[in-house]
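Hypothesis: this fold can be encoded by more than one sequence.
Test: take the structure tokens below, design a sequence, compare later.
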């Protein structure tokens, strides 16, 4: 969080060099969270075949996707499902994470992105979070001049919507989100 909140020391040309595939980052997050999903018997789907490049360092993109996915897995009922969706239109990439868990309490809504805020204390102890994940996600979105919003959806559960500018520069070798083991 501290690293993300520091001013970026890149000039405009260096900033243009940062890009990654958000679809690959989402797939990496699913891979990293596979054992938690299996343990909780939650079906995770990624909807979006198109390449969606965004102006983020690949590590930050994977961290963003992973934090949001782990939150959804922790707050989903056993045998539930989580849906990650990616779309791109009008120069913007939209990434959503939807679960069918308990949703967000109205009194927690204004505080979701505050560092160390964990909402329902009993639920936080069960999930083991520190209250930094959503703060980190917001800092990543802010740094990329994007946005993040969390609401409850009609089917029950939370819906996280991330909007990021689409990367429009030349595709460079650094534009892959694949993490080498």
């Amino acid at each position: 969080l501290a690293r993300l909140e520091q001013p970026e020391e890149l000039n405009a040309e260096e900033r243009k060099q940062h890009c990654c595939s958000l679809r690959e980052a989402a797939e990496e997050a699913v891979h990293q969270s596979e054992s938690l999903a299996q343990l909780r018997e939650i079906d995770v789907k990624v909807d979006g075949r198109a390449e969606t490049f965004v102006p983020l360092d690949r590590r930050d993109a994977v961290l963003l996707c992973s934090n949001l996915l782990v939150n959804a897995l922790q707050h989903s009922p056993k045998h539930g499902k989580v849906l990650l969706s990616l779309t791109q239109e009008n120069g913007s990439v939209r990434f959503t994470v939807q679960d069918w868990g308990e949703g967000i309490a109205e009194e927690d809504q204004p505080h979701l992105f505050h560092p160390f805020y964990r909402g329902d204390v009993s639920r936080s102890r069960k999930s083991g979070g520190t209250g930094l994940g959503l703060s980190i996600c917001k800092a990543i979105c802010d740094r990329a001049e994007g946005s993040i919003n969390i609401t409850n959806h009609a089917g029950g559960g939370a819906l996280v919507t991330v909007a990021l500018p689409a990367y429009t520069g030349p595709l460079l070798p650094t534009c892959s989100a694949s993490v080498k083991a």
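The first helix runs from residue 2 to 5. The radius of gyration is 16 Å.
Hypothesis status: open.
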